[in-house]
Amino acid sequence: MKKNKMLYRIVAAVLACAVVALALVTYQSRSSSNAPVAEGAVTATGSAKGMEGDVVVEVTADATTIYSITVKEQNETQGIGSVVCEQLPDTMVAANSYNVDGIAGATVTSDALKEAVKAALTSAGLDASAFAVAQTSDAAVEKTAESLDCDVVIVGAGGAGLTAAAQAAENGAKVIVVEKMPIVGGNSLKATGGMNAADTKYQEALGITDSGVDEFIEDTMNGGHQINDRSLVTVMAEESSDAVDWLDAIGAPLPKVAATGGTTHKYLHEPEDGSAVGSYLVEKLNAQAEKLGVQIMLNTEATEILTENGAAVGIKAESKEHNYTIHAKSVILATGGFGANFDLMASFNPALANAVTTNHAGATGDGILMAEAIGADTVDMDQIQLHPTVYQETGLLVSESVRSMGGILVNAEGKRFCNDLATRDAVSNAELEQPGAYAYIIFDQRIVDDLKSCQKYIKNGLTVSADNYEDLAKAMGLEGDAIQNFVDTMDTWNAAVAAGEDKEFGRNNGIDADLSTAPYYAIKIAPGIHHTMGGLKINTDAEVLDTQGNAIPGLYAAGETTGGVHGGNRIGGNAVCDFVVFGRIAGNNASAYAAN
Questions:
Q1: Which H or E element spans position 415?
Q2: Is the pLDDT higher at 357 or at 214?
Q3: Which residues are catalytic?
Q4: Does residue 17 surpass a pLDDT of 70?
Q5: What are the CB-based long-range contacts (under 8 Å, 24+) for 415-419?
């Protein structure tokens, strides 16, 4: 018996090694050109810093041709940066260039991979500049027509789309999701804070008794300047606790609870390890959808909603190779907002035409425009939110969690200038009134230790740091009186925290701990376009309404593609609550409609 067990273990180990070897060969073959490797070609490695560490590549090339690119090491986020490492080497080999379009939503990893390949070419003794221009093909791709059938088709694979897909599939529906981008996640990948929710088990366990449904509703209405649709806000608040429980059930718990900007209560639920909530949830939701058999079609853009007798019965979509007609019993739109469609935004506010945006490249309002084409109504389209803490060079959002954990904002004179955790519109407007229309967000090592996003900011070179306030001021570029102003500001803030009262600006949350744990950090930030509050008009069943106020049969929507929930200003943490709550409602009702 012992000999049999030992033999089994040996065979299992050999088979495991064979599987790993086969996987490596398969991966490398995807990164190779069809051209035979010429005599004299050289193989070399190169590396560059990604989001989660170094991206290391091995490149085989000669003076005129890149023959293969293989990613040897990477620790990028699964489903985001990892997709770059899987897909971009093929693109580079086909283009015979490292300078190809990156994958939207994974810019840092895309840039790292390009730099790593460039470094490998240089290391090989080759002229990297010879591969700086991509080759193009004039051959037209002839698309073939393909017809698909399902119960529910979902347009968009961001947080709302993946939530709706997982819920509908959980109910037994056959679900197809089309996503025009090469990765799932959409703008949800940009969410770095948490999910607001009320009356949850996590709040109860922490003894938080003053952050219930009624308070959540009123804070959201007040934050939205009372132009929100109260019925939608009420449903979001009432269903938020169940939404947290559902996430828990699919392996995505949010047990940490904090305050967020614009509220006086603790609703913000975050991952235990301090991860950014967006990428954390996208990974879990995507895994759940795939586990339940959802078909997710990437690089596939929906172009039209199909109707029969006034009801939505499917969509038309296209990829590089196919023109799809997808017949469905119901349709869910989850295409996100239009924060990357500058022409559309400028039609409501011309001042936004050249603004920086935190939105991913695919946030162009496609679902809104397609639905309008079949008679759907919209609401609050002119309500476009600026976020006050955006790193202007890349459009990267600096999480509101930094401030909710005690971080503060100072201007170029080294002074605080507002309630750092007021509503986003109020803080953004205050920043725009400061010298240079920018500010600095200040935090310390205590916050870095508790917040993974801060560790990424440091790793990616966004921060300056020092072991004392005076040296930090100098690292920020402050001069003259501004240096002493900054030191005084930090001392005043720490004293306010000790007293439990911010007499300067009346900040009433995020003052539980001071900024006294060296080293200290600063990031230069300014307002950027962050969220489009307007979109398709829906009812509390997530049904899309027409211009007469009637529900369009078979058509549902959720997430940032809808309007009404957030009014004139979105409270931080409400976007995630919105997409989980209404994503589930859309998934439930669309699957029920399809079953009838």
A1: none
A2: 214
A3: 424
A4: no
A5: 415/485, 415/486, 415/489, 416/489, 416/493, 416/504, 416/505, 418/505, 419/502, 419/505, 419/506, 419/507
Do 127 and 46 have their domain in common? yes
Quick check: 20 pLDDT over 50?
no
Q: Which structural domain, as residue segments, surrounds residue 305?
A: 146-190+279-383+533-595
- Could you tell me if 526 and 505 are in contact, meaning their C-beta atoms sit under 8 angstroms apart? no
The 8-class DSSP code of residue 525 comes to E
Task: Indicate which CATH number applies to the domain containing 93.
Answer: 3.90.1010
CATH code (residue 481): 3.90.700.10
Rounded distance, CA 131 to CA 135, Å?
Answer: 9
The structure's pTM equals 0.79
For 119-158, what is each residue's pLDDT tens digit?
999 999 999 999 999 877 666 778 999 999 999 999 999 9
The Cβ of residue 117 has, within 10 Å, a number of other Cβ atoms equal to 30
**Helix 159-170 vs helix 574-595: angle between axes, to the nearest 10 degrees?**
40
Tokens representing residue 56 in the block: 């290391």
Q: Of 164-168, 262-266, 390-394, which one has max mean pLDDT?
A: 164-168
Q: DSSP states of 225-279 as a string? A: TT-S-HHHHHHHHHHHHHHHHHHHHTT----EEE--TT-SS--EEE-TT---HHH
418 and 524 both lie in a single domain: yes
